[in-house]
Amino acid sequence: MTTPLTTRPRALVRALGGPRYAMALAVDSLGTGLLRPFLLLYGMTVLELSAPATGTAMAVGVVVGLGCMPAVGRWLDRGARSTVVAASMLVRVVGVALLLATPVGQAAPFAAAALLLGVGNQAWPAAHAALVATVSHGRERDAALAAARALRNAGLGAGALIATVGLAGGAPALRAMAATTGLACLAAAALTWSVRLHARPAAAPAGEDLPAGPAPRMGGLLAANVIYVFCLNVPEIALPLVLVTQLHASPVWSAAIFVANTVLVVTLQVPVTVLMSRFPRRTVLALSGVVLAVSYLGFLAATQYGRGWGAPAVAAVSVVCTIGEILYAGSATALVTALAPAHVLGRALARFEVSTGFGLAVSPAAITALAPHGPAALWGGLAGATLLAAGAVATGTDRGSPAGDRPARAGSGAVAAE
């Protein structure tokens, strides 16, 4: 696959699933950005719930969302593609509707709404990756996954920016943004459903719904992924915590770093993924861990400047951290789709999403627990753990997986309208 082919917008849209699916991704991410970053604020401001009650409900939603992933994986392995993606969006529509119907002061309906939103948010990544892996192959698929991430980050960032401006309107504005999120998810689900993509399970024995054979275990890769995922919460949690509580810097620095991270991901995710396509995916994933570990050590050094130069130094190092994040995002899911045989792609992606969701769930607690013990404990601990994870990725082999880092077999099944 040549570089010009994988970087042309029209080719990327086709490899992503076509114009309607690309539009669905844009609409869904824009709507999600209006509510997802502010769900805690919605519970506390609009519904007048306590912070612990709101946070607990959201955490339970994430955990239950992870619990549904085995069922999602088996559904995907029966050949469903656009149906599963659309279903994940529709579950969020129901969650938003329940959220809007929740009376002030009622924690139980809010918890139910958060649960549905969590299920939809957890099911979407695996379903989306399976859909892309069905319509594109090899390195073209890697570029398509990267393009989807760039598009989604742009939509989430734009939605969050609009919501931030609208927060001045108070509770009515938050309700309006939630309603808009529901409508956006509904429109995105309709667009996705219209794609009507289905992959016939490969090599299914006669009289059986699913082909025989387990999904690759990928134990080392999944364990390493839990550590890698911490990088996604560094700009949102670790850096604001360090800048405000340790360096006593203005919150403007945290906002600027978050915006810079979003812009870099949107502009560089596809070019960097294509540039690194000359190397094995496992090598790139291990390299991303090294880059992330170096950035964590850079944050440790930057905090030694204290007030004055500390905040600019942290901002500069954050660029290195974002490059590591881009390398990780461009290789991790692509490696899973390359390792998994076609008939167990859904289950493999579901397991990978469980490890990702678990990492995202525990990283805030781990970061906030390490931070009070000083920069060395926080950044040194993260650097050491990430280097160990990178070593495990570089040297690991996955039982039950195709040997080596071959082009994906996930799209080998025939594709048909549902």
Describe this structure in words.
With 418 residues, this protein is mostly helical. The chain is built from 17 helices and 2 strands. The chain has helices spanning 3-7, 9-16, 19-35, 39-45, 51-67, 69-77, 82-101, 107-135, 138-166, 170-195, 219-228, 230-246, 251-275, 281-302, 310-339, 345-370, 375-395, and strands at residues 198-199, 415-416. It has a two-stranded antiparallel sheet with strand order 1-2. It is globular.
Summary, kept brief:
The chain is mainly α and 418 residues long. 76% of the residues lie in helices and 1% in strands.
CATH class of the largest domain: Mainly Alpha
Helix-strand makeup class: mainly alpha
**Dominant shape:** globular
CATH level-four homologous superfamily name of the largest domain: MFS general substrate transporter like domains
Poorly predicted ranges: 1-5, 203-212, 399-404, 406-418
Separation, N- and C-terminal Cα atoms: 29 Å
Tell me the domain tally: 2
Protein name: MFS transporter
Subcellular location: Cell membrane
Main location: membrane
Region (Disordered): 397-418
